[in-house]
């Protein structure tokens, strides 16, 4: 496994914005808005309460904290020291308990095989050089019978127009340069990576944004953003 599966430019980009992670009006506003959707979906698939959960690429801890609030015992992994500093600081405000660790998924997997009931890796795969390596690490860390959740961006013309041109340049939902089209991943590719890592895909669901109502929703449209629920065979 590639234990240094990280792009320094990507880490720098998110580290520079780390102090704004918990500002719901900042560059991270979309994460705050989609978090209830992805949290409810994950919880409906895996029932988080009492589960040992690993959040890979946790950043400032938006999803990690919300899963802890649902009764999960959460560990958050990230390679940005600044983001983790913000995440740890926010625990004093929220009163939640999350164990934040500075590590790549690959390095952590070497010491924590078959440890977690649930592993999440959301909005991260399109930011690493080798997404298959991250997926394999997640598969290694989940217990047999456990659940793994990924979310990323499809690679097609619509995704380019909506996620980059629309979101970054027209609507300004995200800072310019947040995404690189070449790193987007087709659902068929992600499903193949899951199979190669020994995971079976349970569900594929899309996430859409309506620019008129400014509302995100889950549904059948996987053309731009999508999520996958996979499981490690018992």
UniProtKB/TrEMBL annotation:
* Protein name, UniProt field: Ubiquinone biosynthesis O-methyltransferase
Organism of this sequence: Azoarcus indigens
Quote any Pfam family the record assigns: Methyltransf_23
Known catalysed reaction(s)? Answer: a 3-demethylubiquinol + S-adenosyl-L-methionine = a ubiquinol + S-adenosyl-L-homocysteine + H(+); a 3-(all-trans-polyprenyl)benzene-1,2-diol + S-adenosyl-L-methionine = a 2-methoxy-6-(all-trans-polyprenyl)phenol + S-adenosyl-L-homocysteine + H(+)
Q: What is its EC number?
A: 2.1.1.222, 2.1.1.64
Keywords in UniProt for this one? Methyltransferase, S-adenosyl-L-methionine, Transferase, Ubiquinone, Ubiquinone biosynthesis
Q: Which PANTHER family match?
A: METHYLTRANSFERASE, UBIQUINONE BIOSYNTHESIS O-METHYLTRANSFERASE, MITOCHONDRIAL
Give the function comment from the record.
Answer: O-methyltransferase that catalyzes the 2 O-methylation steps in the ubiquinone biosynthetic pathway.
Q: Which InterPro entries match?
A: SAM-dependent_MTases_sf (IPR029063), UbiG_MeTrfase (IPR010233)
NCBIfam families, sorted: UbiG
Q: Which residues of this UniProt protein bind S-adenosyl-L-methionine?
A: 38, 57, 78, 122
Provide the family line: Belongs to the methyltransferase superfamily. UbiG/COQ3 family.
The biological pathway it contributes to is: Cofactor biosynthesis; ubiquinone biosynthesis
Q: Which GO terms describe its biological process?
A: methylation
One GO MF term on file is: polyprenyldihydroxybenzoate methyltransferase activity
């Amino acid at each position: 496994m590639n234990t240094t599966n990280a792009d320094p430019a990507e880490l720098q980009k998110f580290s520079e914005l780390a102090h704004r992670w918990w500002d719901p009006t900042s560059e991270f506003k979309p994460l705050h808005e989609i978090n209830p959707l992805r949290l409810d979906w994950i919880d409906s698939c895996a029932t988080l309460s009492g589960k040992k959960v690993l959040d890979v690429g946790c950043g400032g801890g938006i999803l990690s904290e919300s899963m802890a609030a649902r009764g999960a015992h959460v560990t958050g992994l990230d390679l940005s020291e600044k983001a983790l500093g913000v995440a740890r600081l926010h625990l004093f405000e929220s009163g939640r308990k999350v164990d934040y660790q500075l590590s790549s998924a690959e390095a952590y997997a070497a010491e924590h095989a078959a440890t977690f009931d649930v592993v999440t890796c959301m909005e991260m795969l399109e930011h690493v050089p080798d997404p298959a390596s991250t997926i394999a690490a997640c598969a290694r860390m989940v217990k047999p019978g456990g659940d793994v959740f990924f979310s990323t961006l499809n690679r097609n013309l619509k995704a380019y127009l909506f996620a980059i041109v629309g979101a970054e340049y027209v609507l300004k939902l995200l800072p310019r340069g947040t995404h690189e089209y070449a790193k987007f991943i087709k659902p068929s590719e992600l499903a193949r990576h899951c199979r190669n890592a020994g995971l079976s895909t349970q569900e594929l669901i899309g996430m859409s944004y309506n620019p008129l109502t400014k509302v995100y929703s889950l549904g059948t449209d996987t053309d731009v953003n999508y999520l996958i629920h996979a499981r490690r065979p018992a």
